[in-house]
Design a protein that fits this description.
This protein has 92 residues and is mainly alpha-helical. The chain has one domain: Glycogen Phosphorylase B (Rossmann fold), CATH 3.40.50.2000. 57% of the residues lie in helices and 7% in strands. Strands 1-2 form a two-stranded parallel sheet. It starts with a helix and ends with a helix.
């Protein structure tokens, strides 16, 4: 995972409402409008997405924050450690 993906993962773990571009290493972590938001790189596009996020009902924002935290748990040290252990296990 690249550095940008780690920053995204850290933000998800804190339940932040995050806005990322698809070319920043976060496209495998974010599901648009479920646990975060995607935007283009043009200033107008960024402004539109920020406006959209600010206008969301509070219950929708809370749902997205909860989903963000749940997404981060998939990539926790314990979860990833078990995955790597399984990958490294040699039958014999």
């Amino acid at each position: 995972m690249c550095k940008a993906g780690l920053v995204t993962l850290e933000a998800l773990s804190q339940g932040s409402l995050i806005l990322v571009s698809k070319n920043e290493g976060s496209e495998d972590l974010i599901e648009d409008d479920k646990n975060g938001f995607f935007t283009g790189l043009e200033p107008e596009n960024i402004a539109e997405r920020i406006d959209y996020i600010l206008k969301l009902p509070e219950n929708k924002k809370e749902e997205i924050k909860k989903n963000a935290i749940n997404t981060s748990k998939i990539y926790s040290i314990d979860s990833m450690g078990h995955l790597y252990a399984e990958l490294m296990r040699v039958d014999g």
